[in-house]
Amino acid sequence: MPPRPTLARCLLQSCRTQNPLTRLRSVPLTRLSRCPVPRRHYAFDPRRPQYNRFQQASALWKISPAFRGAVIIVGGGITVWIGSNIERAPVTGRLRFNCVSEEYEAELGRMGYQEAMQDHRDEILSPRDPRHVMVGRVLARLLPASGLKGDWEYHIIDDDSEINAFVIPG
After folding, report:
1. What's the rounded Cα separation, in Å, for the pair 85 and 101?
2. Looking at the DSSP assignment, which residues form a beta bridge with residue 124?
3. Which residue, 9, 75, 83, 98, could crosslink 5 as a Cys pair with Cβ 3.0–4.6 Å?
4. Left (φ > 0), alpha (ψ -120 to 50) or beta: where does 47 sit?
5. Where are the strands (E) in 64-135, listed by range?
6. Which tens digit of pLDDT belongs to each residue from 36-47?
């Protein structure tokens, strides 16, 4: 058996052709296949079997029509549920996702209002307080410009430790 040529000798022989454009075509494939290929250290070695964590799941998707049907039914159900809960916002006209009914939202608002009134019953300002009158004038100009309709009730909580405002639905 003849000795195997080194990689440098193989490359040198392939570069000795006269036309530089045909260098790679001039070397027979059998000669290049006999040249030793330097071993590179890759994280993925194609000669070694690889661990595939999701091998069963991908095989299940390809083989089982019941699994495929379940995924399609669940995906379709979620799509229908999202599509049926999209509505147009009354003020801005933009589409929004809302899966809470107006009745449930009003009930949450009533519970939140009662809780706020119980927690801060000693700190609520009288309607005759000048700050309460000033907020009323601002709201009288702000509400018609915003386009929001309905009866608005407001209370001012006199608490110096918190500077905050909130709106309760309902």
Report:
1. 10
2. 157
3. 9
4. alpha
5. 86-88, 95-97
6. 555 555 566 667
